[in-house]
Amino acid sequence: MPYDPTKLADWQIAEEAEKNMPKPEEWVDRLGLQKDEIIPMGRVCKLDFMKIIERLKDKPDGKYIEVTAITPTPLGEGKSTTSLGLIEGLGKRGKNVGGCLRQPSGGPTMNIKGTAAGGGNALLIPMTEFSMGLTGDINDIMNAHNLAMVALTARMQHERNYTDEQLQRLTGMRRLDVDPTRVEFGWVIDFCAQALRNIIIGIGGRYDGYMMQSKFGIAVSSELMAILSIVTDLADLRKRLDEITLAFDKTGKPIYTKDLEVGGAMCAWMRNTINPTLCCTVEYQPVMVHAGPFANIAVGQSSIIGDRVGLKLFDYHVTESGFGADIGFEKFWNVKCRLSGLKPHVSVLTTTIRALKMHGGGPKVVPGLPLPEEYKKENLELVEKGIPNMVHHINIIRKSGMNPVVCINKFYTDTDEEIKLVRKAAEEAGALCAVSEHWLKGGEGALELADAVIEACEKPTDFKYLYPLEMKLRERVELIAKEVYGADGVAWTPEAEAKAKMLESDPKYDDFMTMMVKTHLSLTHDPTLKGVPKGWVLPIRDVLIYSGAKFLCPCAGTISLMPGTSSNPAFRRVDVDVKTGKVMGLF
């Protein structure tokens, strides 16, 4: 240790590190757990969080550290790698440290982005299990979600085929009279399957379902994943699963999962998902995995449950948010922390020189193609022009009262002068700054980052939300657009504004969280606009209602719940050694 990531692929590093990976029973002693607080599942285990929380309820929480990023390029800027590197660096400093990351979706794992296991010597293991389903949480969510659609479409078929008297006699149920043009829910699958975005179902005879337009989303965009991210226990999960809006009837009244008596069965499918799965870094620090990605639609955070457990088990607990600070951190700040009641100490802003060059006007980066030369050679002009994007994200973090630490995730192409320029700008903007080489050197390469985070954790904080819950939906959106994104204002389509007014007038939505929906590739709604655009207005075209999660989701621009698979996807390089059964070719 460390391994040589210039010669070994990530899956090869993982294979070597997994030879000495702690067994589930070893974590009992290492983490001070009781034997009945772990649930072994193959090479990993789940943690029985209710037992742990109850036993440690009076123990003070550790330091709470969040990891976010500047506006990413299409290749990503190593946020998970930075989270793991920081955990390893704090471990090298002798700290009792752990973390909680999100489980990767099969969509990006088999597409361009690849697995979210980190990389090099800042890697999560067991990598294959982590990348390909782990303990089945996403599959359980898929089954529960699709069961709700089975219940709804079957009910629509039976209501069409039977009279009110027959329906009552056969099923004991009243007629719901679903409006087929106002079915809000769709189906989910955990791949990037653009061919399923818009479909027609029920083709055939009267016993082949109800013919109507329908849709698929990627599994991690499901409202059920959002619910898993924020629940406090199994009872909370069960309650929320009854309150999901599936459709509207022909008078405009919402039809909930409880109207179809399906919430209990959905909870049965998801009963095991509430316990985090315990994995570790290649340097064997503990890392929980709980909830999933998709921060531009859902909450995009590792779970509240995982953070509550980590803050009791560890003196330093690291969690991550999806995409840039304008999306993932804003939701961490104003939604996750509000729901959990937890107050964080530090936010680490992952930054790369190549991303700053892109925001400074560098050429387009295309996943799967070689990086243009501008990103491989020193170019201080592009870096300087891109620095305002980093400063903008620092200012977002500072608005929360948290302490920002800029992590320059170093690549071999970065020069000393480029790094010096970024460090100076970060410090002038009020952040601590550290260069980290965790990919190449593991914890040894993250010592400067670890020291900066330790220092920041000891500084006072004045954590505060951007807006009070009493603020109306349209006012919240205006404030987020101006204060977080840098917009001049908001433009609502007539349909979206009418929906917003309806929601504002109904008291049952007063305590719903505001979950903004926009592209992650720009501070604006337009993914082609890099840097810190000026003189623009945020368009809102719709507001999605996630009544189980209690989210209202204003949609800026055109966002799809189903990404597409590229022309050169990662699955082309994944295979199995038929002699050993080992998976090869994962990033």
From TrEMBL:
Name of the molecule in the record: Formate--tetrahydrofolate ligase
Keyword Oxidoreductase tagged: no
Reaction(s) catalysed by this chain's protein: (6S)-5,6,7,8-tetrahydrofolate + formate + ATP = (6R)-10-formyltetrahydrofolate + ADP + phosphate
Protein's organism: Thermodesulforhabdus norvegica
Family: Belongs to the formate--tetrahydrofolate ligase family.
Enzyme Commission identifier(s): 6.3.4.3
Segment forming the signal sequence: none
Keywords assigned: ATP-binding, Ligase, Nucleotide-binding, One-carbon metabolism
Residues annotated for ATP binding in this entry: T73, P74, L75, G76, E77, G78, K79, S80
Pathway(s) where this gene product acts: One-carbon metabolism; tetrahydrofolate interconversion
InterPro entries: Formate_THF_ligase (IPR000559), P-loop_NTPase (IPR027417)
Repressor is among the record's keywords: no
Enzyme class: ligase
GO biological process: tetrahydrofolate interconversion
GO molecular function, one term: formate-tetrahydrofolate ligase activity
Pfam families: FTHFS
